[in-house]
Amino acid sequence: MIPLVVRPAAQAAELVQLLRQHGHAPLCCPLLETVAGSELSRLPDLLHSADMVIAVSIHAIHFAHDFLLQTGQTWPHIEYFAVGQASADGFAAIGIAAICPDDPRSEGLLALPALQQLVGKRVLILRGNGGRELIADTLASRGALVHYCAAYERHYPEFDGEQLTHHWQAAGLDSLLITSGELLQRLLALVPDHQQPWLFDRQLVVPSPRVAEMASAAGFIHITIAQGASNQALMAALELRKME
């Protein structure tokens, strides 16, 4: 198959390599760039006072971990949670066992038994510049003292959507690997309206029911929900579609 990979460059390169190893011919076009967040300098103090840490994306873990390494510091021995399997894998890669829900959404995380009784607990949420307000609001309503750390910031490269769409069509693009609602929205904004019927007819692989609902509402027809946003989960879902 000829899938489109749009996740940030570092993760995109790993996914492209994996797809090629399994006989696919991916096209790579990162629609999102990530850079170190403006609040990383606060991370050591926030970690020192936290009872538990929640990571809402693997990017937050990568940038936080790099900052700690550069400043000669380590992760404290407290409870760690990940919204999805990709983030849990990110924690595992640095030696941290994080609790992860089967349902890779904010709602799935909030349903975990360990996050029900939180009176007086200090919770640190690692995220980008904005997002996941539902988690903070709900945990605060359960008595938690919630702090954010913007471990990374998002930037969108400028593209000529018409030209890019023609390139994808000429290359025979037949599938899309979209790892977040944010990237789905960016793709929809990039592809011109008159080209969207073509886009909606591509095979779409998404990481969660939430993103699948967004895609269906936008007009996508062929949607597969992977078992999370990890490269392995995306590739496995695409392999299933290839065999059908």
From TrEMBL:
GO biological process: one example: protoporphyrinogen IX biosynthetic process
EC number assigned by the record: 4.2.1.75
Lyase among keywords: yes
Pfam family, one: HEM4
Recorded metabolic or biological pathway in which this protein acts: Porphyrin-containing compound metabolism; protoporphyrin-IX biosynthesis; coproporphyrinogen-III from 5-aminolevulinate: step 3/4
Keyword tRNA-binding on entry: no
Domain Tetrapyrrole biosynthesis uroporphyrinogen III synthase: 14-235
Keywords assigned by UniProt, alphabetized: Lyase, Porphyrin biosynthesis
UniProt GO molecular function: uroporphyrinogen-III synthase activity
Reaction(s) catalysed by this chain's protein: hydroxymethylbilane = uroporphyrinogen III + H2O
Cited InterPro entries: 4pyrrol_syn_uPrphyn_synt_sf, 4pyrrol_synth_uPrphyn_synth, UROS/Hem4
Enzyme superclass (EC): lyase
Function: Catalyzes cyclization of the linear tetrapyrrole, hydroxymethylbilane, to the macrocyclic uroporphyrinogen III.
Family the entry assigns: Belongs to the uroporphyrinogen-III synthase family.
PANTHER family in the cross-refs: UROPORPHYRINOGEN-III SYNTHASE, CHLOROPLASTIC
Name under which the protein is recorded: Uroporphyrinogen-III synthase
